[in-house]
Amino acid sequence: MTAGILSVAIAPWIQPVVKAREPVPLFLLDTQCVTNGPGRSQQETLDISVGRKVYRSYFFLGPGSREVSVTCRIGEQEGQFESLLLEFGMRDNDRGSPPNAVNIYLDGVRQESYTLSPGEQVAVSLNITNVSHVAIETVCSSQNRYCDRVYFFESTLSPRLNIAPVEPNSESPNQI
Predict the structure, then answer these.
(1) For residues 7 and 14, is the Cβ–Cβ distance under 8 A?
(2) How far is CA 47 from CA 50, 59, 66, 121, 162, in A?
(3) Is the pTM of this model over 0.85?
(4) Tens-digit pLDDT profile for residues 24-37
(5) I need a surface site. Which of 5, 46, 112, 117 has the fewest CB within 10 A?
(6) What does residue 39 show for φ and ψ, rounded to 5 degrees?
(7) DSSP string spanning the chain?
(8) Closest among 176, 62, 70 to 133, alpha carbons compared
C-alpha cells in the first residue's frame, strides 16, 4: 500500500527530461579534406615561437615559392556547425622569409585574407552556420623566393547546440 501511495505522489514529477547535448568541438582536419597546389601541407604536432610566445601547432601549410591549400567538407548537411575558430602564424626564426597571404574561403567564396610576416599571428572566428565547405590557402608573396610555413595552433569547428527531449526507454537495462 505504501508503494502505491508513493507512486501516486511522485507520478506528476516523472516527465520526459529535456537534456542539452553538449557540443563536441571537432578538429578541422578530422573532416574530409584534400590538399591542392605545389606547396606542402602536413599534420604535425610541434611547439613553436610566434611573437615571442609559445604555441602548439597541429598542422602547417608551406607554400614554398608558390601556394598550397587545404579544402574540407565540414558536414553532410549545411548548418551542422556554428563557428570555425582559426589561429595561425609564422615562426619567429623565419625572419628571412617573404610574407604569406592566407585566404579563407567558405563554400568557394573568399571571406578573409591576411598577410603574415615572420613573428606575426592571427586569430579569427568565422560564422559557418550555413556552410558545407571550408578552404584555407597560403600564397607566397614572392615568385622567386621561398616562403616559410604558416602554422595552425587552432582549427576548431564548433557544432550547433541542439536540445532534444530524452524519453524513458522501457527496454533500457539501466532503468528500473
Answers:
(1) no
(2) 10, 11, 25, 14, 35
(3) no
(4) 889 999 999 999 99
(5) 5
(6) -75, -165
(7) -HHHHHHHHHGGG--PEEEEPPP--EEGGGSEEEEESSSEEEEEEEEEEETTEEEEEEEEEE-BTSEEEEEEE--SSTTSEEEEEEEEE--TT-TTSPPEEEEEEETTEEEEEEEE-TT-EEEEEEE-TT--EEEEEEEES-SSS-B--EEEEEEEEEEPP-EEEE---TT-TT--
(8) 70
Mention every residue, 6+ apart, whose C-beta is less than 8 A from residue 77. 132
Query: The C-alpha cell of 110 is what?
Result: 573568399
The β-bridge relationship of strands 40-50 and 26-27 is: unpaired
**Would you place residue 119 in the very low, low, confident or very high pLDDT band (cuts 50, 70, 90)?**
very high
For 50-71, the pLDDT digits (tens) are: 999 999 999 999 999 999 999 9
- In whole angstroms, give the CA distance from residue 60 to residue 42: 6
Is the pLDDT assigned to residue 1 strictly greater than 60? no
pLDDT in tens, 141-172: 998 899 999 999 999 999 887 644 444 444 54
Q: Record the cell numbers describing residue 148, joined without a space.
A: 616559410
Q: In 3D, which of 106, 93, 97 has the Cα closest to residue 140?
A: 97
> Which grid coordinates belong to 60?
602547417
